[in-house]
Amino acid sequence: MKAYMTNGTIEFLLKLRKKNPEIDLHLMHSSEGGIAYYENHEKKLFQSGREYEVLMQTGEILEEGFVVMNNIPVSDESKPGFEYRFKHRTNSVEGMPGFQAFRLLKPLKNNTYVVFTQWKSAEDFENWKESEQFKEAHKNQAAKKPANILEQAFLTVCNMYTEEEQ
């Protein structure tokens, strides 16, 4: 399955959604602007968007919630090991209160993977970060940048855009 994502103003992304009602276009917003995301559809809406292969998925992306995307640049030679570790991890996040959806997105044109999680609220995400399950899931991460990581990973944090916000 493929996933597609782009950035833009909410106004532009709303027009795009209106022109393409057959696509379940999820809109998000942050202090940096809007993000549109959709998956499992052959039509490409975005001229300068990003395209991914969905390697793993759990849950359904809902129209309301809090989204955290961990953007992780991985070198070409390290991609198989990175994917292997994810596929063989314990799925403790799925049982956390407020968890809604998870996607591991493999980039088709660059080296930045996206670990997409959706939560009912920012508080639920913070509770996950403070949990023993989080500590267990991240215990083998080195304090310094691993050799397979090209650049520093970064978070994109946003809320789902709802029509009431217009």
TrEMBL record:
InterPro entries: ABM_dom, Dimeric_a/b-barrel, Heme-degrading_MO. Gene3D superfamilies: 3.30.70.100. PANTHER family: SIGNAL TRANSDUCTION PROTEIN TRAP (PTHR34474:SF2). One of its GO terms (molecular function) is monooxygenase activity. Residues 66-157 form the ABM domain. This is Heme-degrading monooxygenase HmoA. The keyword Oxidoreductase applies. SUPFAM superfamilies: Dimeric alpha+beta barrel (SSF54909). Keywords: Monooxygenase, Oxidoreductase. It comes from the Bacteria. The keyword Oxidoreductase applies.
